[in-house]
Specification:
The N terminus is likely disordered. α2 runs parallel beside α3, α7 packs across α10 and α8 crosses α13. β9, α9 and β10 form a beta-alpha-beta unit. The protein is α/β, with parallel strands linked by helices. It has two domains: about 210 residues, Glycogen Phosphorylase B (Rossmann fold); about 170 residues, Rossmann fold (3-Layer(aba) Sandwich), CATH 3.40.50.2000. It is globular, with a radius of gyration of 23 Å. The protein is built from 15 helices and 13 strands. About 35% of the residues lie in helices and about 15% in strands. The strands form two sheets. A seven-stranded parallel β-sheet has the order 3-2-1-4-5-6-7, sandwiched between helices. Strands 10-9-8-11-12-13 form a six-stranded parallel β-sheet, with helices on both faces.
């Protein structure tokens, strides 16, 4: 098993379950011979009073309901939108709804036939203080509100398929009641869990899943589990102790990445107003809420490296959630060769660059790898170790270098940037393709969902 590790005290021992995930299993959850896709228009779906809407004559609009649990980040909503675009392009008679509490979801362009179901978050006015107990009670109240909205939306839409990202029962279990109510009321609905390969410390995830009842849901609620990753890099069955009864439902779709930029590197530089030649480093910290130390250290490291590489240019993207005063400090140190911007199309910048600095989030890392750019990862410095596991896993395969956030003041970041800038691009691209042959996870996911949505 590659990559899985636990940084906390291990959970109580459990019996090791046999079996392995299948790269392309048969119809998950024993669905062979059942009606598929639009044929579900004839399914029975009682709503409250036992009324079968389709049989009563009302038209059934094929519907996919997606759940993305972002709060401060951008990763889940970005990936969910990528998937929604692919699904709707493949199924022109379908509509899609994305349930999310992301405060910036409205900043993204929605595809046609897609809408948001905005889930509210707890807001606090300036000067209002709460005790820890009051804060937790307020958060729980909003979890209840979101749960009620999710349940009403699920039952009201009666979707053909529900695709839940990252949290199988919703954040803190907020979607549990809605999911089980939908399964009871609409037995024709299919449920798929979208599992990002690396979630967090494996012991912590296993403990949370046991506490929330996730293992039972994977076995009895979900028809399939779409893994957004590769078993060659990270074996989720072993990492999360997936029960043997669930493992046949696992389907590795590969890495889900947006469509790559259509223009080549030189054309992108012209379009973005970047220098036509010379090495270019792009540094991005996702949403930016905790990315300031990384960009601050990167600015200093680039200044030191420029003594060796005078033509070096840098573009730093702070992200929309970096506090204004931190953005201002970075802007104050910007120069003609070090640009600082709040938001940009990071994928385009990476395609135009020679090297990338990232905090190690799934989307940023996948996009850098998709365009085969040498990658320096500085993982998030919190109790969550998802990004560090990803950094270690990729570094072990020669796809990246990583620097611990505690070492930002030392020489390691400069050394890593020197490697990235001096890396042979052709050889690095060959290495990436050797480990990860393709980044068509979104297309492969749509092909996987076809067993329930219909089509080839």
């Amino acid at each position: 098993m590659a990559g899985a590790r636990s940084g906390t005290a291990p959970s109580p021992p459990r019996s090791r379950r046999s079996g392995r995930p299948h790269a392309d299993p048969g119809p998950a959850g024993g669905t062979a011979g059942r009606p598929r896709g639009p044929a579900a228009a004839g399914r029975s779906c009682d709503r409250g009073g036992g009324t079968d809407v389709t049989r009563s004559g009302a038209p059934h609009t094929p519907t996919v309901l997606l759940y993305a649990q972002d709060h401060q980040g951008l990763g889940h909503i970005t990936r969910t939108l990528t998937i929604a675009r692919r699904v709707l392009a493949a199924y022109p008679t379908f509509v899609a709804y994305i349930a999310t509490k992301s405060p910036v979801a409205g900043n993204f362009t929605l595809p046609e036939r897609c809408d948001y179901i905005k889930l509210p978050t707890l807001l606090t006015a300036e000067g209002v203080e709460r005790s820890p107990a009051e804060e937790e009670a307020a958060k729980q109240r909003f979890r209840t509100i979101r749960g009620q909205i999710l349940r009403a939306a699920a039952l009201g839409l009666a979707p053909d398929l529900v695709l839940v990202d990252h949290e199988p029962l919703g954040a803190k279990g907020e979607f549990r009641e809605g999911l089980y109510a939908l399964k009871a009321q609409c037995p024709g609905t299919k449920f798929v869990f979208g599992l990002r390969d690396i979630m967090d410390d494996v012991g912590r995830i296993q403990g949370q899943w046991r506490e929330l009842g996730v293992y039972d849901a994977l076995e009895h609620l979900y028809d399939g589990v779409a893994v957004y990753g590769s078993p060659a890099l990270y074996d989720v069955a072993e990492a999360y102790d997936i029960p043997a009864a669930v493992q046949p439902k696992l389907h590795y779709c590969g890495y889900v990445v947006r469509d790559p930029p259509a223009l080549d590197r030189a054309a992108l530089r012209r379009e973005l107003g970047l220098p036509p030649s010379g090495p270019l480093i792009v540094a991005t910290v996702g949403s930016g809420s905790d990315g300031y130390p990384v960009l601050e250290a990167a600015q200093a490291a680039v200044d030191r490296l420029r003594a060796e590489v005078p033509e070096l240019h840098t573009v730093m993207v702070t992200g929309p959630f970096m506090p204004a005063e931190q953005q201002a400090r970075l802007q104050a140190r910007a120069t003609a060769t070090c640009h600082v911007v709040s938001q940009a199309d990071n994928f385009q910048l990476m395609a135009a660059a020679d090297a990338v600095v990232s905090m190690g989030g799934y989307n940023s890392v996948c996009e850098a790898l998709a365009v085969a750019r040498p990658l320096v990862i500085v993982p998030r410095a919190t109790h969550k170790v998802e990004q560090q596991i990803r950094a270690e896993t990729l570094a072990a395969r020669g796809l990246a270098r990583w620097v611990h956030p505690k070492d930002l003041a030392g020489p390691r970041l400069v050394e890593a940037l020197r490697w990235a800038v001096g890396c042979d691009r052709r050889a690095h691209a060959e290495r990436v393709r050797e480990v990860i042959p393709s980044f068509d996870g979104a297309a492969r996911l749509v092909a996987y969902l076809a067993r329930w949505l219909g089509g080839d």
